[in-house]
Design a protein that fits this description.
Blueprint: E1 13-17, E2 20-24, E3 32-34, E4 58-68, E5 74-78, E6 84-90, E7 116-117, E8 135-139, E9 150-151, E10 155-156, E11 159-160, E12 164-168, E13 174-177, E14 184-185, E15 200-201, E16 205-215, E17 218-220, E18 222-223, E19 225-230, H1 244-254, H2 268-281, H3 287-293, H4 304-310, H5 318-325, H6 365-376, H7 401-411, E20 434-436, E21 439-440, E22 455-456, H8 484-488, E23 517-518, H9 521-529, H10 533-541, E24 544-545, H11 555-564, E25 571-576, E26 587-592, H12 610-616
Parallel strand pairs: 1-18, 2-19, 3-4
Antiparallel strand pairs: 1-4, 4-5, 4-13, 6-8, 6-16, 7-22, 9-12, 10-11, 12-13, 14-15, 16-17, 16-19, 20-21, 23-24, 25-26
Length: 633
């Protein structure tokens, strides 16, 4: 391996990016792909996310190292070509030895939810519940397959569990792959709840990413990173209205300790337009969003004509800007109404809807502030319809690459209902979790994981040097559901409620990761090939139930069917629409399913049947306050 003879001028330290990398499980034996490295990636070809057998490929997280000057400015990417780089990663899964999920513990409604007791509380050997194979190290270019790079020596109650492995690319960049989507019960019992199934494990994980970098005999200090191995992304190019990047940006902006440079002036292109694009993008994963924000709908805010008006600072458009901004939910105005945007459940979601500020999702305070600036005309009108975003990280200027990697990784993660969530959950909004913006604190000793008692209580959120400070391996994902499939299969839309919901498909939980209603491949074929415009329009407007493959039997049958085969669920891909046809959009979201027949007929355009509605209205996912809601101050 060739290395540089001396340290490049100006470089005094280094940093790993993305600061938080996201890998995802998949049930393919070896198929994988890199996770997003830019915020606007090109769509992949149809079928890209599956291997030849129809199984889901794993998403890997790729990490790079940048040399920085004394002011933190990136001067160069450091690779195995010009440096000696030794990577170390420690993955662990500590869900079963941690506390139950009942409700986010940093909101007042937590006092009304059941206590969060230890999972598997009758198991005295707590170490047997933690899947912790310890750290692994890797160095050099194009390394793959060595047994010393595999996280396979951890176990759950004596059962070995594979959590993933390390590889490197041609430049010696780190590549982290997670598990293969296997979840199982030690006792052979069925899953019976959405989040807290005792005796169960899954193979998601998380942990620190560190590196030793030496150039010309000089060893550089290196800012560490973290990797989170999450469930699959079943709608890979969709983003929620409030992303994890938005949340972490708000956390940094609100913290005197973390606060970076003052937020720049509100930009329509960077800060406002993405909100409208995300609302429109959800048309491919939820029928309610399709009806209102989708192609040619009442609030299709991303047409060129509409964007030109919304980008204008002219006083003639002020009323339009104010009207659109006022549609977004405000905690002090209409918090528990399902009508304001976005139409998504919140951290304190419950049936019936509680009259609390966390019943439904709001944007971050920073997002709402930028909306207010925009409505007032105090923004940069910088929308350019001819702009072509970078499609690969190499197209981004070097100085901007680290921030782009951080943002791209986190923009495809959710920060909607932390109930508990898809990739990460409510601790991510605690400033104590971070050593710097977007960069998690590491525990001084990864083996030091103290006990906090039989129950986790809200007052532990601020416990000095407690679980929301320096993180141990497995410290981020331990707050999530076990197994994750039970929660994913429970996160639906339009749950029966009292009073009744105003639309059968709304509100919704996490459609950008866990779709609700989708366009089938059969209907896409009609759109593309039929000679009848009426047939094509009808097919385009018809949505199918994403959960169709598991919709047999009762609720418990459904969540256990999902656990049995995560690859049976569809992946929503973006494909070309009819060329030059103004009746249809240029790109269309289409569900790709494995080459096997569905268990039940997929299409359903009505609300759930009465028996199913009765079942769903009573599952513990939506019954968070069995003893009523205490008066909140």
């Amino acid at each position: 391996m060739a290395t540089a003879e001396k340290l490049p001028a100006g470089i005094v330290r280094a940093a790993i990016h993305p600061s938080i990398g996201i890998a995802r499980v998949g049930n393919s034996s070896d198929g994988s792909f890199y996770g997003p490295e830019i915020t606007d990636p090109q769509p992949h070809p149809a079928g890209f996310y599956r291997d030849g057998s129809g199984a889901l490929k794993r998403q890997s997280a790729r990490f790079r190292i940048y040399g920085l000057d004394a002011d933190g400015k990136p001067l160069a990417e450091l690779t195995a070509i010009d440096a000696t780089i030794a990577w170390t990663v420690h993955l662990a899964n500590k869900k079963a030895s941690w506390y139950e999920f009942q409700l986010a513990q940093d909101i007042p409604e937590a006092l009304s939810a059941p206590a969060q007791m230890l999972r598997n509380i009758t198991v005295s050997d707590r170490a047997s519940l933690s899947i912790d194979p310890g750290p692994r190290s890797i160095s050099g270019p194009n390394v793959k397959g060595g047994p010393q790079h595999i996280f396979d020596t951890g176990s759950f109650m004596g059962t070995p569990v594979y959590l993933g492995e390390l590889r490197t690319d041609e430049a010696g960049r780190l590549v982290v792959l997670g598990g293969r989507g296997k979840s199982a019960s030690h006792t052979g019992t069925r899953a019976i709840t959405f989040a807290n199934n005792d005796g169960w494990y899954d193979d998601v994980s998380d942990g620190p990413v560190t590196a030793e970098v030496t150039i010309g005999g000089t060893t550089l200090p290196v800012d560490p990173a973290w990797v989170v191995v999450a469930p699959p992304n079943y709608a890979p190019l969709q983003k929620s209205v409030r992303t994890m990047w938005d949340l972490m940006r708000d956390v940094a902006n609100s913290s005197p300790r973390l606060k970076p440079k003052a937020p720049p002036r509100t930009s329509f292109e960077r800060d406002i337009r993405p909100l409208f694009e995300r609302l429109a993008g959800l048309q491919w994963v939820n029928e309610g969003f399709a009806a209102y924000f989708g192609w040619r709908s009442p609030d299709y805010l991303v047409s060129p004509e509409c964007l030109a008006r919304l980008n204008s600072r002219d006083d003639s458009e002020k009323q339009t800007r104010e009207m659109v901004a006022s549609q977004f939910r405000r905690a002090d105005r209409d918090a528990w109404s399902p009508v304001p945007w976005p139409w998504m459940y919140g951290d304190a979601m419950n049936i019936p809807t509680p009259k609390t500020s966390n019943a439904f999702t709001t944007l971050t305070p920073l997002q709402l502030t930028m909306l207010d600036h925009w409505a007032d005309g105090d923004f940069d009108a910088d929308y350019d319809p001819a702009r072509k975003p970078p499609r690969i990280i190499e197209d981004v200027p070097l100085a901007e690459q680290p921030a782009m990697l951080d943002r791209a990784s986190l923009e495809f993660c959710l920060a909607d209902a932390f109930h508990p969530g898809c990739e990460m959950t409510w601790p991510m909004r605690q400033t104590s979790m971070y050593m710097a913006p977007f960069r998690l604190r590491h525990a001084a000793d990864m083996n030091d994981d103290p006990s906090y008692g039989a129950a986790f209580t809200p007052d532990m959120v601020t416990l000095p040097d407690g679980p929301l400070y320096g993180q141990v391996a497995g410290g981020v994902t331990r707050w999530m559901a076990v197994p994750w499939q039970a929660d994913t299969a429970s996160c639906r839309s339009g749950y029966p409620s009292d009073p009744p919901v105003y639309a059968p498909h709304l509100p919704t939980f996490w459609p950008a990761r866990v779709p609700n209603q989708v366009l089938s491949n059969a209907n896409y074929d009609i759109v593309m090939k039929s000679k009848s415009l009426d047939d094509r329009l009808k097919a385009f407007a018809t949505r199918s139930d994403w959960l169709a493959p598991i919709m047999h039997g009762g609720y418990l049958d459904q969540i256990n069917s999902f656990i049995g085969d995560i690859g049976q669920m569809g992946v929503v891909e973006m494909r070309d629409g009819p060329k030059g046809d103004p009746a249809f959009p240029a790109m269309i979201g289409v569900q790709d399913v494995p080459p096997q027949p569905l268990v039940v007929a997929a299409t359903r355009t009505l609300a759930p049947a009465a028996s199913e509605a009765h079942d769903l209205a009573r599952i513990d996912k939506v019954r968070r306050f069995p003893f009523g809601l205490k008066t909140l101050m």
